[in-house]
Amino acid sequence: MARQSASAAPLAAKWRKLAEARCAEKGERLTPARLAVYAEMLACNRPLSAYELIALLEQRQGRKIAPLSVYRHLDFLMRNGLVHRLQSAQTYLPCDHPDHPHESQFLLCSSCGHVDEVESRGLETLLSQIADEHGFRPDDTVVEIKGVCGTCAVEDSH
Amino acid sequence: MARQSASAAPLAAKWRKLAEARCAEKGERLTPARLAVYAEMLACNRPLSAYELIALLEQRQGRKIAPLSVYRHLDFLMRNGLVHRLQSAQTYLPCDHPDHPHESQFLLCSSCGHVDEVESRGLETLLSQIADEHGFRPDDTVVEIKGVCGTCAVEDSH
DNA sequence: GGAAAAAAGGATATGTTATAACGTACTTGC
DNA sequence: GCAAGTACGTTATAACATATCCTTTTTTCC
C-alpha cells in the first residue's frame, strides 16, 4: 500500500484516476494543491463552505491558506466537472459521477444536510423546451430541491 | 391624482392593491417602510442586490439605512410572496404575478441582465415526481436557467 | 383611556462569502 | 536559455448577511 502524504487527505485511486482523466481531456493541470482540495472535499463527503474547507485544509497542512487560493482551486475543479456549487446554500460538493460532463439536479435535506445528486434526462429535456418557448438559449441550469429526505421523514414520524 | 410622498418611489395602484391583499390574507402588516422597499424594487424593474437597494433607498429618502432593515423588509416581502430571491445571483426581484402563491422558474439573461419569471405546471409536476422517486419530500425548489435571451441572441448575430 | 404585550424598526458591530491587485515561481515550447 | 503562459502566494478590500441590544409604534385587553 502506497504511503499517503501527511499533508493531504487520502484519496481513493478511483477518484484520482477520474480526476486525472477529466483534466487531461482539457489539457488542464491537476496540481498537488488542486488535488489536495479535491481530496479534502471527498474525505469530508458533505457540502462545505469555502471557509470550512479553508479551515480543514489549514488543520491538515498546518499552515495558513488564503481564501483566494481555495476559491481558485474550487473554480478549477468546477471548470473541470469535478465539483459542483450549491447555489442556494453557497457551498461546494464533489461531483458524484465525474466520469462525464453533465448538468445535475440536487435534493438537499434540510434536516440531516445530506445532498443527493440526480441526473434526469427528462427534466433536462423539459427545461430546454421551456427555454426554447421563450426564445432563450440556456447555458447553465440550476435545479435545487430543498426538503426532507426519506430517512429523516421516517425519523420525524417517530 | 393623489400626490406621491417625496420619500417613496411611485407605486401603481395595481401593485399596491395586490400587495395589500396578499398581506391581509395572512394578517401581516404592510407598513410604509415595507411598502417603500417594494415600490423601489418595482420602480427599478430589474434584479437588485440588497446593497444596491439600500443605496437607492438612501438616495430617495436622504438618510442612512442599515442593511438589517432592508434584509428584514426583504424577508417580509418574500414571506408574503411579493418578492423572489435569485439564488445564483444573490439578488432580489419583485414577483411578476403576486396574485397567488406559487413557485417560479427564472430565465436569467447574462447579456442584458433581464429576468423572465415563468410558471410551468409541467415542470413542477416532473420535479415532484423526481423527488418522490427518491423518497424526498420537497419544500422549496429553485430553478434558475442562465443563458442568453432572444433579444440579445439576435443582437449578437449582427 | 391606559397598561401590558407584541411587532416593527433603528444603531452598532460583527460574521461570512468572494474578489482585486500585484508579485513570484514554476511549466512549456521554441 | 528565454519568452509566454499558467499557477500560486500575500495583502487588502468588496459584497453579502446576521447578531445584539434597545427604542418606537401598534395592538390588545381590561
3D architecture notes:
2 copies of one chain form a homodimer. Chain A has 158 residues and is an alpha+beta fold. Chain A has 2 domains: 1-95, Winged helix-like DNA-binding domain superfamily/Winged helix DNA-binding domain (Arc Repressor Mutant, subunit A), CATH 1.10.10.10; 103-158, Dna Ligase, domain 1 (2-Layer Sandwich). Helix content of chain A is 45%, strand content 18%. Chain A has 6 helices and 5 strands, in the order H-H-H-H-E-E-E-E-H-E-H. The first copy, chain A, has helices at residues 13-25, 32-44, 50-61, 67-79, 121-133, 150-156; strands spanning 83-86, 91-94, 105-109, 115-118, 137-148. The longest helix of chain A has 13 residues, at 13-25. The first copy, chain A, is globular. The mean pLDDT of chain A is 92. The interface between A and B is medium-sized, with 33 and 33 residues. Chain A binds a DNA duplex (30 and 30 nucleotides) through residues 29, 31, 33-34, 49-51, 64-69, 71-73, 76, 90.
Helix content of chain A: 40-55%
CATH topology (fold) name of the largest domain in chain A:
Arc Repressor Mutant, subunit A
How many H/I helices of chain A? 6
Pair of chains with the largest interface and how many residues each contributes: A-B, 33 and 33 residues
CATH class of the largest domain in chain A: Mainly Alpha
Unreliable residue runs of chain A: none
N- to C-terminal distance of chain A = 45 Å
Annotation, overall tally of beta strands of chain A: 5
- In this structure, how is the largest beta sheet of chain A organized? 3 strands, mixed
- Total number of distinct structural domains of chain A: 2
Average pLDDT value of chain A? Answer: 92
Oligomer: homodimer
**Rg on CA atoms of chain A, Å:** 17 Å
* Overall geometry of chain A: globular
Q: Can you list the strand order of the major beta sheet of chain A?
A: 4-3-5
